[in-house]
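Hi Y.,

Following your request, here is the sequence exactly as I used it, all 322 residues.
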Amino acid sequence: MRHQRVRVKVPASTANLGPGFDSLGMALEIYAWIEMGFAEKTQIELFGDNLEGVALDKSNLIYEVAQMVFAEAGEHHPELYIGMYSEIPLTRGLGSSASAIVGALSAANALIGGKLSADRLFQLASQLEKHPDNVGASLFGGIVVAFWDGARAEHIRLEPHLDMEVLVAIPSFQLSTEKARHVLPQSVALPEAVYNLSHSSLLVASFATGNLAMIRHAMQDRLHQPHRAALIPGMTEILDRAVEHGALGAALSGAGPTMLALLDARGGRRDELEAFLRNTFVKHQIEVDTRLLRPCLTGVQVLPAEQGDCSLLELAKGELAV
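Below is the corresponding structure, written out as tokens. Let me know if you'd prefer a different format.
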């Protein structure tokens, strides 16, 4: 069914989860909302505090991705209304670009009656993002194990343990993915590769079987986090000591600078862990925002935006107030 205007709700995501570089992702319950519709003249509106610097013309990422969908489907819709409200901070390692890509693909596809399959949207998203972990998580929800070989992406979705929570510590400074990737070596020694392969495999098995106790052993990395630690004061201490303060395991979220700690909701040490994360950054004179999140199980959601509905901003604020 075609629509004149649609709204999508897209979860944030965390990628890598330690050893699963560019291959493991998990959707999180903080969101971006995008509204898209056909228009006589392109208009782009941004709401909220997390979209500073986002383009308001046809160079806007959401607009460009939507045009890719229309071209793929053999349609021509050069003028669009786009509105966006986001809780997801930019360039903090929580998949802000992936959520925009997934939201744009899903909204544009819904406008033209769903001509493209979910798999095709996943292929397009992976090609745009150059890795499938963030986009796969935002598209499908839950935990996504995936690869992209430059031609095709494949994934398997896992259901997160019901008692697993995610505590994130979001520093006040930004860190671009490009800068975080620039510090990585172009080759690694065989023992380091084997180390990450074994730990990543064990982490996937831990998630798949619900063996939360094994995460502390599995969530270790030698591929990317040691090289990025110099960019994020306090990161090494968090990785080394978070388990002492109640974490199942800790990792850099995506390319950072956000740090995340997985925890068991039944453990009763949430406040201790949060204080540890916060105090570690404070010791380095870094302001930090901590949030307790749940894995998001649903992935992107698409809803018609009929006339007479509340505005996008009212919709987002209403959901946040629940």
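The domain at 5-158+297-321 is CATH 3.30.230.10 (Ribosomal Protein S5; domain 2).

Thanks again,
Q.
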